[in-house]
Write a structure and sequence with these properties.
The structure holds two protein chains of two kinds. Chain A is mostly beta strands. In chain A, 0% of the residues lie in helices and 48% in strands. In chain A, the strands form two sheets. In chain A, strands 2, 4, 5, 6, 9, 10 and 11 form a seven-stranded mixed sheet that branches. Chain A has a four-stranded antiparallel sheet with strand order 1-3-8-7, with no helix packed on it. The N and C termini of chain A lie far apart (33 Å). The mean pLDDT of chain B is 94. Classes of the chains: A mainly beta, B mainly beta.
């Protein structure tokens, strides 16, 4: 499978615990995005990496969130001291930018987080 | 006002109907336009990608972009029950390339 891979698919955690998600992008893609999606809403941008550099963070990304992409390959998203409001689907996407006119993003299946 | 507006529906149509899904946007810098299909509890799947104004066709799907009106559409011909899903429009600007999404339209195709 050469698509975007996310792990785990589901995570249930108690409030206050830390959680970490992993994303493996399509191998030749240089850009990696993290999005959050809640029920009935479209994906909301959190942050992105161009190779290993984290270039932009949304205001949605509070201090409890941290993302890394060591060596420009896979990425991790950590949430510290989880709150019930963090319950959502966390989506990872990758793309090749700048392509010629081809810059579309491909998504993984997401990690569904439930904070109890 | 959100940058990308999309009616959440639901839109219910009989099998075989032509479906029209639409989004409007306010950011004139958007130049890349995408449509994704998302089944329940799954990640979004890219359906169509367009770079410029005009039409692009792929099988039963046609994407239409009107930059002058800041309006994009996705048409589905001969709709099938398997097309029942949420359809998300997304768009990005040159330089940024970060997709900004609408909230999605829920489509139900009943036999």
């Amino acid at each position: 499978d050469t698509g975007v891979s996310q792990d785990p698919r589901h995570k249930i955690t108690k409030r206050g615990q830390n959680v970490t998600f992993r994303c493996d992008p399509i191998s030749e893609h240089n850009r990696l995005y993290w999005y959050r999606q809640t029920l009935g809403q479209g994906p909301e941008f959190l942050t992105y990496f161009q190779n290993e550099a984290q270039l932009e963070k949304s205001r949605l990304l509070s201090d409890r969130f941290s993302a890394e992409r060591p060596k420009g390959s896979f990425s991790t998203l950590e949430i510290q001291r989880t709150e019930q409001g963090d319950s959502a689907m966390y989506l990872c996407a990758s793309s090749f930018v700048p392509g010629l006119e081809v810059t579309e993003a491909f998504f993984g299946q997401g990690t569904r987080l439930t904070v109890v | 006002q959100k940058e990308v507006e999309q009616d959440p529906g639901p839109l219910s149509v009989p099998e075989g109907a032509i479906v029209s899904l639409n989004c409007t946007y306010s950011n004139s810098a958007f130049q890349y336009f995408m449509w994704y299909r998302q089944y329940s509890r799954k990640g979004p799947e890219l359906l169509m990608y367009t770079y410029s104004s005009g039409n692009k066709e792929d099988g039963r799907f046609t994407a239409q972009v009107d930059k002058s009106s800041k309006y994009i559409s996705l048409f589905i011909r001969d709709s099938q029950p398997s097309d029942s899903a949420t359809y998300l429009c997304a768009m990005s600007a040159r330089g940024s390339y970060i997709p900004t999404f609408g909230r999605g339209t829920s489509l139900i195709v009943h036999p």
